[in-house]
Amino acid sequence: MSLFIPLCSSSGGNAVFVGSRNAGVLIDVGCSFKRLRESLALCGTSLDAVKAVLITHEHIDHVKGLFQITKHTDIPIYATKGTLNYLSQNNQVFSNTNLYEISADSEIQNVPVDYRIKAFRTSHDASESVGFTLEKNDCKIAYCTDSGKVTPEIRENMRGADFVFLESNYQPELLQSNPRYPYYIKRRISSETGHLSNIDCAEFLTELVDFGAVRFILGHLSRENNTPALAYEKAERRLFGHGAVNGRDYTLEIAPVVSEGKVIAV
Fold first, then answer.
1. Based on the number of CB atoms within 10 Å of its own CB, is 254 exposed (0-12), middle (13-18) or buried (19 or more)?
2. Alpha-carbon gap, residue 132 to 154, rounded angstroms
């Protein structure tokens, strides 16, 4: 059995832990080093359990605590070449010693955990952004945020996952009517290299449930242009229209902005 722990999830910071209480991987570190340690402790584990860090891309809400991790620990950091180059050139890591380049078209080698891990490309305005699949004991976990559209590569890699963490970033009407967002930001978010809307997320969930997914967590919700209730309602309604019933065919949750200590068994 694996544990899936959303440590933080929003447009302000993202990090999840996958593994056992004694050994696992961290996907992104978008909160402070202090908050990371506190959240892990709240969930019954610690930084000692983190055997590797997988970075999706270089935006600050995914790497906020990375400099401190590379300064105070020797945990190996895995990311694509484009992401690593950006992180190194922009002083987002303390040292290059434990940085390992990964490819988005093959299994990641030499990760010191008992998972088969693969990266796949996402459609985002970053150097070389990716999502991840982690497989163990015939259970497949898929993690995908920060993509303006569901690409064929995303579909190919996420189909067949039992457990899915998927971005549901914004509600189009809320984004377009937000007076605090200038037009160019609205255009960026809603573009094909921006973020996934509630509508597009919900539509993709119908495909995933057809291919065997039984547990969904929606994450990376915008605190300005979305609400947990709205993301949940859009997903559940679309799945119901597709013939899938919540509690019978699947379960659905919203990742917390900051962990309250919940640990999810996969």
1. buried
2. 10
